[in-house]
Automatic annotation (TrEMBL):
Compartments, as annotated in UniProt: Mitochondrion
Organism: Aspergillus cavernicola
Keyword Membrane listed: no
Name the record gives this protein: Bifunctional diaminopelargonate synthase
HAMAP family given in the database record: BioD
Residue numbers spanned by region Disordered: 207-228
PROSITE patterns named among the record's database cross-references: AA_TRANSFER_CLASS_3
Iron among keywords: no
Major subcellular location class: mitochondrion
Length: 796
């Protein structure tokens, strides 16, 4: 089932009616408001939708509207006979229980048809209280959230109603709903309307107290039923014409208009006030800025200037860049939101140095256990990937200078890395990348390192190729062809091959020349494992990264300038760092982005320092961790305060971020353990008709993107190469003018995805001639298959 756009129309003012509890009079309130519409203007059309109803048909809420608001269109989508909770009633039905997405789609289609049929006011009434379960057992507050209809909350006037009403409001608020009005029946004894009136007035939410409806007669004979109906009709006629109710309708209509006007103005206002990152503003127009009203699961709700048919003002847009690679568990994840609210309520923010709080301790222990690297024993908290890499750099340089007796204030200490690397935009780690578009115009940039060119992996014409750069062919040999993606990662076999021997000799000779002949000193080896993200989604041959690590670790004397073979003066053992500290920047590739807990596991390497961010908090809040070995930690231990790692931020180990990260990691670990991705994994394991694309069992390299799509795209005339690992799909397009960050070859494909398909469009970003798409770890197969159709239509 296709995702729905959030429910917003210019011609239709639609609201969802929630109750603070069961039996608080939601349907009576709905009847009053629908009658008020007709009372205000006989030409106006109102409508009432009950998505799910339980109990006797005669007692159904839509039937009540038919009897007492006869000028109102009414509809019930799913009626269950048993007067019990929908999740119980649905199981007792003979037919298939409607899925949540089917319910959402039906609601949206009904409202859309009314919007195109002259209806100006519509109510969607829920069943029971805010968290009463829907047919599939999910809370209604979560079930209907993608529609993000503005809320009319019917508060509880009974004893205990103050608490239940405020609790209902807070539950809606934490899920991103806008509560626009509160109504309740006054009770002269409990006087909840007075207390709640003040409470909601302070939040600029109007509360309208209503006179209680007439009591139903105890006798249910025909005469009493007729008198009951007459009394109700008189009640509705009286209350619906009240000044407060009519004024409320005007207020709700005004807010609907204001919401649309705000969305219409957002782009132009942003153009005047916002300085966007990674954006050249010259020639940028308001039309180049996309207003996002909300987001849920994998989708933004983006504003469309004009109603598209009956679609409305908001359209579901697949977040194809995973919001700069952060999205793990979907936008608006209620579990993460509740974790954040819990930590915010429990702590707010507390100063970290010299203190400890439960979220920070729990996350540190869970993260070390999840990553499973025996070298890593200490967790240092920062705010984002760039600052986390700054800390990693400080750690590595200090450990190396301490071991080799270097004075960094007297001589330059460089790093070893790969061309195309990107480790952030703060001024220190910017120097850890070669000159590029990102840093050449930064006035303090110096570039302190040596960056190896390296072989790239891609699927082209159905064959997995390891392409050797032209300048390295003499040293590394010709291109290689491998039978499968698993074969690319079969490093225990490849490292002992001729290619492995050539890689190691080239790396050793290069470092030897840099150190012994040019006199350079190196303080750390820094790499993004497997995929170099911002550099252009470069899939580095994992064999090269493995050999680079092995050469550095196997030749410690190479770096102190002696080239002696003895290593006795240096710490020994499996957990000791050797040669240089190995730093893995897993900000992008770590924590299941590539389908595994750690991207280091692809290389069979345990780094001495590892940095994680992005997926750490499931995409909700900034947080970063730098993990280090005990040996690295000890390099900062002395009697002098100045020798400590004097790095920190005001919000270090922010309790909200740590609590959310614990929830995120636990969820992803659970998904990994319970087979949530089995279907995707099996798709990449099964034998296929094309033998040269058949993966070998056992290595477990897989992707959410179908193997046949990847194979077929590799044959496309405009495609230079393609690969998919985990949630990442990268498509390199041919460009006669040359590849790279300045290429515009991928813009056409990006525009085609933006235009979208029958159900949604796709937000994506390009890196020169490379268009990449990224899902969350919770993406639904149906959404990915629709994107597959768009790609096939655009490229094949």
């Amino acid at each position: 089932m296709a995702p729905v756009g959030a429910a917003l129309w210019r011609s239709l003012c639609a609201h969802q009616v929630y109750g603070a509890n069961t039996d608080v009079g939601k349907t009576i309130v709905s009847t009053i408001l629908c009658n008020a519409v007709n009372h205000r203007n006989a030409e106006e059309k109102s409508a009432f939708l009950k998505p799910v109803s339980t109990g006797s048909l005669d007692e159904a809420d839509d039937r009540h509207l038919q009897r007492h608001a006869p000028n109102t269109l009414t509809k019930c989508l799913y009626q269950f006979d048993e007067p019990v909770s929908p999740h119980i009633a649905a199981r007792q039905k003979k037919f298939t229980i409607p899925r949540d997405d089917e319910i959402l789609s039906s609601v949206h289609k009904t409202l859309s048809s009314w919007a195109g049929n002259g209806v100006s006011f519509a109510l969607v009434e829920t069943a029971g209280g805010v968290h009463s379960p829907g047919p599939n057992g999910n809370s209604q507050a979560d079930l209907y959230r993608p529609l993000r209809l503005p809320i009319i909350l019917v508060a509880d006037s009974r004893l205990g109603g103050i608490s239940s009403s405020i609790s209902a409001y807070e539950s809606l608020l934490v899920r991103g709903y806008d509560v626009q009005s509160v109504l309740l029946f006054w009770d002269d004894y409990y006087q909840n309307h007075e207390y709640l009136g003040n409470y909601f007035r302070n939040k600029s939410i109007p509360l309208v107290p209503l006179p209680p409806p007439p009591r139903r007669p105890q006798s249910q004979n025909s005469d009493s039923q007729a008198r009951d109906r007459e009394a109700l009709d008189a009640y509705y006629s009286s209350v619906a014409g009240g000044v407060d109710v009519v004024s409320l309708l005007d207020e709700l209509a005004l807010r609907n208009t204001q919401r649309i006007e705000y969305l219409e103005e957002m782009a132009s206002r942003a153009q005047k006030t916002i300085w966007y990152p990674f954006t050249q503003h010259h020639g940028m127009a308001a039309r180049d800025i996309t207003p996002i009203d909300s987001a849920y699961d994998d989708f933004f709700q983006t504003y469309t200037p004009e109603d598209s048919g009956q679609q409305g003002k908001l359209q579901a847009t697949f977040d194809g860049s995973a919001s700069w690679w952060t999205q793990g568990l979907g936008h608006g994840n209620p579990g993460l939101a509740l974790s954040a609210a819990y930590a915010a309520g429990r702590y707010g923010h507390v100063m970290f140095p010299g203190n400890i709080h439960e979220p920070a301790l729990s996350l540190a222990e869970l993260l070390l256990q999840t990553v499973g690297n025996p070298r890593l024993q200490k967790v240092f908290y920062t705010d984002n990937g760039s600052t986390g890499m700054e800390v990693a750099l400080k750690m590595g340089l200090r450990a190396t200078c301490d071991r080799y007796g270097w004075d960094a204030s007297q001589e330059q200490i460089n790093i070893l890395g790969l061309k195309g690397s990107y480790h952030g935009d703060t001024i220190g780690v910017m120097d850890c990348s070669e000159p590029s578009t990102y840093n050449q115009r930064v006035e303090w940039y110096r570039g302190r390192g040596h960056w190896f060119d390296f072989p790239l992996v891609k699927l082209s014409q159905g064959i997995w190729r390891v392409e050797i750069p032209e300048v390295l062919r003499e040293s590394l040999g010709a291109d290689q062809e491998l039978p499968s993606l698993d074969a690319v990662f079969d490093l225990e076999k490849r490292v002992s091959s001729d290619a492995g021997a050539r890689y190691k000799k080239y790396i050793f000779d290069t470092i030897e020349q840099l150190v012994l002949e040019q006199g350079k000193k190196f303080g750390a080896l820094i790499m993004e494992p497997i995929i170099l993200g911002a550099g252009g989604m470069l899939f580095c041959d994992p064999l090269f990264q493995r050999c680079l690590t092995d050469v550095v670790r196997d030749n410690p004397r190479l770096f102190d300038g002696t080239k002696a073979s003895s290593t006795e003066s240096y710490p020994q053992g499996d957990l000791a760092w050797s040669g240089l500290p190995v730093i893995f920047d897993e900000v992008f590739t770590g924590l299941y982005r590539l389908g595994r807990k750690s991207s280091a596991s692809f290389l069979g390497v345990n780094p001495d320092i590892a940095v994680n961010a992005k997926l750490l908090t499931g995409g909700l809040i900034p947080l970063c961790t730098t993990l280090a070995s005990e040996e690295i930690f000890n390099a900062f231990t002395s009697l002098e305060k100045r020798d400590a790692l004097l790095h920190g931020h005001s919000y270090t180990a922010h309790a909200v971020g740590c609590q959310v990260a614990v929830h995120s990691l636990q969820t992803m670990n659970q998904m990994d353990g319970n087979g949530s991705w089995s279907e995707f994994k099996n798709d990449w394991k099964q034998p296929h008709t094309n033998d040269e694309f058949r993966p070998r069992e056992g290595l477990g390299v897989w992707s959410v993107w179908p193997h046949r799509l990847v194979r077929d795209l590799s044959y496309a005339e405009s495609v230079d190469g393609v690969f998919a690992i985990g949630t990442v799909l990268s498509i390199s397009l041919k460009d006669a003018q040359g590849a790279g960050y300045t290429s515009t070859a991928a813009k056409g494909l990006q525009a085609r995805l933006t235009a979208g398909g029958p159900h949604f469009n796709v937000h994506s970003r390009v890196l020169g001639n490379v268009l990449y798409l990224m899902s969350s770890v919770t993406s639904k197969k149906e959404s990915l298959r629709e994107i597959e159709s768009l790609l096939r239509e655009a490229l094949l």
